[in-house]
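About this split. The held-out portion is used to measure sequence recovery: a designer receives only the structure tokens and must propose an amino acid at every position. Recovery is the fraction of positions where the proposal matches the reference. Here is one held-out target exactly as it appears in the evaluation file.
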């Protein structure tokens, strides 16, 4: 009987200690996005923009924190596109500058793993909902290019590394890889043109000493 009571006492104390480590703190984050649309036949290069959002850090232990996030992210690509317009007696084909801007509201389930007191790793899935899009190129002379917006929802994996400082300040570098068709080029939906985004920024956690 005493052994059973002692066992339950140890389990209860362990559970109480674990619960005492659980904390929840909200935070904000912002930074620069360097993005590119991949797997397309267009001549595209990276585009620089920004992201901003908030998160809730649910610390479940010394090593692990579950961190749901909501982020507004501006992504896309720059480059050139081949199109055509009608001249006086012929169809003229040429390349013109192209700027693709895609805006997403990202819902991220981030898993945070503390390697040391200051260094941590980040990994988790995301779902992006497109809230805005703009495909810009010179349309003078009724120039037409066979490109258009792709799917409204993207999902994939995001990972990164961070370095935390006192007073809740941290700096992070992330890589975000989408899996859905970001936009349709000359091949239409036959080719899946995916988002690849690098994020470099800072985060602030409220109430952290």
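Reference sequence for scoring:
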């Amino acid at each position: 009987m005493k052994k059973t009571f002692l066992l339950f006492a140890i389990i209860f104390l362990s559970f109480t200690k674990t619960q005492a480590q659980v904390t929840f703190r909200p935070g904000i984050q912002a930074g620069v996005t360097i993005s590119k649309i991949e797997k397309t036949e267009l001549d595209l290069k990276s585009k620089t923009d920004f992201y901003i959002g908030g998160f809730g850090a649910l610390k479940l232990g010394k090593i692990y924190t579950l961190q749901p996030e909501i982020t507004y992210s501006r992504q896309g690509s720059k480059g050139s596109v081949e199109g055509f317009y009608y001249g006086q007696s012929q169809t003229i084909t040429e390349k013109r500058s192209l700027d693709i801007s895609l805006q997403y509201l990202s819902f991220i389930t981030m898993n945070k793993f503390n390697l040391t007191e200051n260094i941590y790793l980040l990994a988790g899935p995301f779902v992006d909902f497109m809230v805005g899009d703009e495909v810009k190129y010179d349309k003078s002379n009724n120039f037409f290019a066979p490109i258009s917006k792709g799917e409204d929802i993207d999902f994939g994996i995001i990972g990164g590394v961070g370095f935390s400082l006192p007073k809740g300040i941290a700096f992070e570098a992330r890589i975000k890889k989408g899996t859905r068709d970001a936009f349709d080029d000359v091949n239409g939906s036959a080719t899946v043109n995916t988002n690849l985004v690098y994020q470099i920024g800072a985060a602030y956690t409220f109430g952290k000493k």
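Annotator remark: The longest strand covers residues 91-114.
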